[in-house]
Amino acid sequence: MRPTITGLPGSKIREVANAALGRSDVLAFWFGESDETTPEAIRAAAAKSIADGETFYSHNLGLPELRQAVAAYASRLHGPIAAERIAITSSGVNALMIAMQLLVDTGDEVVAVVPLWPNLTAQPAILGGRVRRVSLHPREGAWRLDLAELIAAVTPATRVLLLNAPNNPTGWTLTRAEQQTLLDHCRRTGTWIVADEVYERLYFEGGAAAPSFLDIATADDRLVVTQSFSKSFLMTGWRLGWLVLPRGAEGDAAKLIEFNTSCAPVFVQRAGLAGMAMADDFVPGLVARLRSCRDRLVGGLQRLPGVSVASPPGGMYAFFRVEGRDDSLAFAKSLVAEQGLGLAPGAAFGAEGEGWLRWCFAAHDPARLDDGVHRLAQALGL
């Protein structure tokens, strides 16, 4: 085995979840997904596709009609985006890996804003890249970017700037002004931006989506945006995503998709088409439900003495810490064992997240959140 692969850490979230195997009494908030099932219209479209015998390969870049639908959807949010710039992938994480394979070679420097879902920083490392971490800074429970620090870290030697905003796990979101500053700087240094914007619709500060680099970039900028059907369409298990590429990059992306997965399954793409058809009606309702869940959970946590948490502007997570509980993995395991409460340890997102816990508030029944806060209070002796 390659030492790089052997040295990759296992998922600490899975480690906590595995500690609850065989138990039916655990309130599980550790994974980044809603407990709502995929909408019926999406499931029906996939079932019809299978019944119709659509079980063969499709084009590497995806069904033309899905690429068109995704381009139209993105254009409504961000201005004109041609279908030729869309590549359909077998999940959002596959989109991220394709992006890294397009851009990162052995020895290339990748600057990543952290804490961050560990897959994103592992991917360039797997390819032989050198990952440099620039941390957000917590202030009164909210995480903030030191823009000057990040600008100083991105030099002409930096091949890729990797950003996830709205961010998993913190909920931090870039402002339009910060995006413009970063885009202008990366144009000067020749640095590519890989923007993971899978949570862009799960945004609570007004507007149809969080600020996106697509709002301000041209089709020729060194920008790759990764997206997923998982979060906004409740399709985590379907494994369907997409890339928005610079003009002319689709040929290389098609080759890499061929080498990785060949194509996304046709019946899953038909499900994605159904999701696109209902997006304008469905997604705003989902966001409203998530906002209510966010406010309910954050309010409950803020009432607990010793808990530090701020209301996240985007995403589906409350990222919080408890005074005196600095070993997040041990604390998360004890919450499972003693209270039946399943949360993700902050250490799963890098050393910068140690001492924090991530709580996914995407609950179909908000009363589960209240029960979880009660269990946390019991663990704290309150």
Descriptive labels:
382 residues, alpha/beta, Aspartate Aminotransferase, domain 1, Aspartate Aminotransferase, domain 2, seven-stranded mixed sheet, four-stranded antiparallel sheet, 12 helices, 15 strands, globular
Describe the structure.
It is a single chain. This protein has two domains: about 140 residues, Aspartate Aminotransferase, domain 1, CATH 3.90.1150.10; about 230 residues, Type I PLP-dependent aspartate aminotransferase-like (Major domain) (Aspartate Aminotransferase, domain 2). It has about 375 residues and is α/β, with parallel strands linked by helices. It starts with a helix and ends with a helix. A hairpin with an 8-residue loop joins β11 and β12. The chain is globular. The mean pLDDT is about 95. The protein has twelve helices and 15 strands. It is about 40% helix and about 15% strand. α3 runs antiparallel to α10, α5 runs parallel beside α6 and α5 packs across α9. It has a seven-stranded mixed β-sheet with strand order 2-10-9-8-7-3-4, sandwiched between helices. Strands 11-12-15-14 form a four-stranded antiparallel β-sheet. Strands 1-13 form a two-stranded parallel sheet.
Summarize the structure.
This protein is of the alpha/beta class. The chain has helices at 3-6, 12-18, 40-51, 64-78, 92-103, 118-126, 147-153, 176-189, 250-260, 266-302, 328-339, 367-379; strands at residues 27-28, 86-89, 109-114, 130-135, 137-139, 142-144, 158-164, 192-196, 223-228, 241-244, 307-308, 317-322, 341-342, 344-345, 356-360.
